[in-house]
Amino acid sequence: MVKHQPLQVYERQLCLSCLTGIYGCRWKRYQRSHDDSTKWECSWFLLLCCSFLLLLVWSYFWLEARNDYNEFNWLLYNRSAVWKDGTVPILTTTLTGLTYTAFLMILALCHIALGQQLNLYWIHKIVVLAILLTTITGVVSIDDFWQDEWDIVIISLQFTGPFLHIGALAAVTALGWFIAGQVLRVERSRLQVVTLVIYVSVLLVLYLVPLFISSPCIMDRSKLGPRPAVIGRRGAPMLAPEHTIMSFSKALQQKVTALEADVTISLDGVPFLMRDRTLRRTTNVDKLFPGRQDHDASFFNWTEIRSLNAGLWFLRDDPYWTVQYMSEKDRKRTANQTVCSLAELLRLAARTNRSVIFSLRRPPPQHPRHQLWVSDALKVIQRSSILPEQVMWTPDWYRKKVRAAVPLLQQTSDEKLPVAELKERGISTLTLHYSQARAQDIRQFSGSNVSVNVYPVNEPWLYSLMWCSGVQSVSSDAPHILKKVPNPIWIMSADEYGLIWITSDLISVAIVIGIFIFQKWKMSGMRSYNPEQIMLSAVVRRPSRDVNFMKEKLIFSEINNGIGSTDELSMYTGNGLDVYARDDIMMPALHASKL
């Protein structure tokens, strides 16, 4: 009587099934393969890597651009005449795409580590391609619409560069496990050499990158200057409607040293505070004066302007997502705000002993005050109770006339000029965009007794960077946030940074060498398998994947060479080998035994 025994019984491999199933929809064992991935699938893997890296850069851009989200929304409003937070859909899609591609990248690397053939499912391919094209479209659109914002990436690298370097070094070092597994295989190919050369080159670049990293925060703590003063830009527009008495009052509660505003001249010569060209965004002009909502704000007289509500829009649009944190009392107060005049702002500043800095917009040529706009502003300053030296005059128009009329005004410029020319014009303060504020220029201006004010600074990291750069003051929409920054977020000496750099490089080198040595030892152990070793290793309760794979090859090789007797098969099973339970695999052995 012939006794049939199965050749091998497979244990369940749920993790591997999930890995190959999610990545390539290959849930069955027979669908998987240890063969090399095709060039087509390798191309899709490279495309996946490109999508992930591009999304990583895109995400970093929007993370750092948080300082200017309101500026972005304001630009959108000027194009569409409808206020909406355009950052929400961008951030949502970016985060979703980054999570999706990162997950696929992890699955792909696990395939490589386990020796599984890459076979990305066609739905994943479509989504990855769509993500790549969408991200490229977004980059091109931002470059056309908001090109100046790319400067934030370069500036932020001065702050995040040392930490990004360590993170990149850790990631590339960990990648050495997968590189070693591919390079040290038995089969030699040109691709392995190219892969190794690229990997080593990237490592060398990362080891030397700190030589080119420059940051104002890498300095001796003894050279750190005083904390920059914070100026309330349009008051505290995150806490109350911009350019209203409530907004300036909120800013004063946050201990600002000065108040900043944008000034426009009304039809009857009254300077009032308004950022936009029209009254549409921040007032209810469409309800009180239908048909005039798109008219220039300067073509309204002061009586009409004063009748408008300047607070309801803040409750409705919630531009900074802060309305939910307002008390009921503040909401009622917000709903009753009106447009603020320059005279009211000066009275508030004089009463609280604060300085005022403002920009003055010239009315259109057909405006009756087109030639008198500077005189209108000067009259208000002279009639107010504020001290002239507390007013920072920014407009370059008729500067000599202004200096002659009110000599004690602080002359301020928003144009970056040589020190000699600044002295000639009597300018004592520069108001610069943060993209123009380089550390070496700030030190030069400070050495010549020219103060530097930087705008807009809304994020703690940018405030810390400006602090280390030596600026005297910053203009901010978020004084309540900067109030919570008593010290720079980080500061270290050059020696401390050098020690961190050398230590991280040495650790990386040691780990990479250890990975390659271990992978070499592991590969050499797999190559030295023989039947006796396999028979002995079969007594292990849970054999490894590589041992199982070698067992299968040995059994099929012996069957093909003529082993067919049940006694021989029993010998294998008696020594502890697992055997197949599938009938279609049993047939060759059964046929051989009958013969």
UniProtKB/TrEMBL annotation:
Source species, domain of life: Eukaryota
A cellular-component GO term for this protein: cytoplasm
Location(s) in or outside the cell: Cytoplasm; Endomembrane system
GO BP, sorted A to Z: lipid metabolic process; positive regulation of neuron differentiation
This protein's UniProt keywords: Cytoplasm, Glycoprotein, Hydrolase, Membrane, Transmembrane, Transmembrane helix
Topology versus the membrane: Multi-pass membrane protein
GO MF annotation terms: glycerophosphodiester phosphodiesterase activity
Transmembrane segments: 42-63, 88-110, 122-142, 162-181, 193-213, 498-518
Domain GP-PDE: 228-486
Stated family: Belongs to the glycerophosphoryl diester phosphodiesterase family.
Name of the protein described by the UniProt record: Glycerophosphodiester phosphodiesterase domain-containing protein 5-like isoform X4
Gene name of the encoded protein: LOC113110009
